[in-house]
Predict the structure.
Amino acid sequence: MQKKLFTELGLSPELLKAVARVGYEEASPIQSEAIPVLLGGADVFGQSQTGSGKTAAFALPAIELVDPTIRATQVLILCPTRELAVQVAEEVSKLAFFKRGVRELPIYGGQSYERQFQGLQRGAHIVIGTPGRVMDHMDRGTLKLDQIKMVILDEADRMLDMGFIDDIKNVLSKMPPQRQTVMFSATLPGPIQQLVKSFTRNPVNIRIQDQALTVPNIEQVYYELDRRAKVEVLCRLIDIEDIKFGLIFCATKMMVDELTEHLTARGYAADKLHGDMSQAMRERVMAKFRKRGLEFLVATDVAARGVDVDDIEVVFNYDLPQDSEDYVHRIGRTGRAGRSGKAITFVAGREIWKLQNIMRATKGKIHRARVPSASEVEEKRTSAFYDLIRDTLEGGEYRRHDELIDQLLDQGHTPTDIASALIHLAGGEKPRPAGERTPEPVAITIPRREERPERRQEFAPEPNFDTFKKKKRATEAAPVDSGDLRERIGKARPKRTREEEFEPSKVSHEPGMVRLSMNTGRDHEITPGDVVGVIAGLAKIPKECIGAIRLLARTTYVDVAREHAPHVLEKLNGIKFKGRNLFMSLAE
Ligand code: AMP
């Protein structure tokens, strides 16, 4: 079935604005089909699954129908459970955001009558309730149905299963005869057919069927998780599977923006693609992704339609797609031309139903996987570090430091102790906050920043690992001053912090950048994401103009493009940042 743009469906500007605000880019098949019919005043019987977008399909025309100047209930939506009633009420509230004066009210068993009386008395235009409680209010005279223009049965077959059929018939028989009737049901058992026959007038039947789909032959897994854990789990999977080139799908533009922020703040080279970006911007991002200037592209379905890139290792369904067709389109971006590929899908809460529909349509080859624990991620990191050391030893391409080591041996340290201390300094054993980008095992071969422009290489919270990397990079460029290291280790006093020992340079090494310092740091629970957020947010400079960030205990160094520095200083100096007065100046 064809999908349409919301602007093609005959909705008012207020509702189009609300849809854009919620972040839906195009109407789902059920919405494309049902909205114009309902706006035209016809009754509808829709056969469509949860997850197809059916709530907005009936909620948008319902909101459109309400006259907010009349203080009476004009739309009644019956739902099988209190959870669904609340969910539908939330969707109605979001979609009615720009319709002044339209009020919705969920009423369900278990909630105090008092609160519901008050809500009804205030004049709820759209009442969303479970059949039992709706009947209660009708019997008490607190819910009046004489001005109802539309009645909607959501998930009618579930209400039937739950034994509500008599209540439903009772409610429907008390409605004004000229009202519009809408029924949604995933299946069509006899009693529901009967209901449709008795209580609708010439209903338009809308059926969204999952088509038989050809699924690419790639590994497909899903993870069941809490919605709030998605970012964390995504980062764990990227780290543990060492994914370097992936496409991540989100449901809305807002989610795309948010996730891109999270990923860049955690040090991944990620950028976004969605419908609010100009064509030129989109092309720029695409070109960068194609050239591997990005590790991850975060996109909505619509924006990603033009993404035609080979070698994508993994497609993440960070949010579930609208339907099975979208699922197949999405995952078809990986495993091209006979290469291996993987599709990873996140499923939160009730969405498991939606996934089951997808599995049915795709002949169920999506396997459940277990979310890796933080300690497994850590283990993987340690083993990557072990591999790096072993490869370096076996490759033999490192400069020897016999003199320094002899000196340490002479002082009575064992070789194992010396090696352990060095590993410690290199950050190979320090626990890393879960989800923080695992440093790639590239300390020695790390490409220069020009080749990896997006990765903030100094993001890792452990200054020791960064310093190690930096030192190694310096090692490549210039002869090693082993005396310097010897001096540091030899003279190290127990009380001295590593930060004092490895005070970072106060001058930016990036062409065109200057280094600024801030009077806040890790001790104040500042993260690199906070730093990028406050600078990009308040000074309104593009994130690309913010470079390396180095967090010390009470100071943060951040590189910004030279031309923006005065503006950043002007905008940020003196503001409250994480509860402290921010003082910012040129570091050099
Ligand atoms: P429903 O089938 O109504 O339970 O909707 C399932 C999910 O899809 C909900 O989280 C909605 O917010 C979301 N949704 C509904 N319509 C759209 C759309 N046109 N584009 C993207 N997401 C949508």
Summary: The chain has four domains: 6-207, 219-368, 376-462, 475-586. Residues 219-368 form a domain with the Rossmann fold fold (CATH 3.40.50.300).
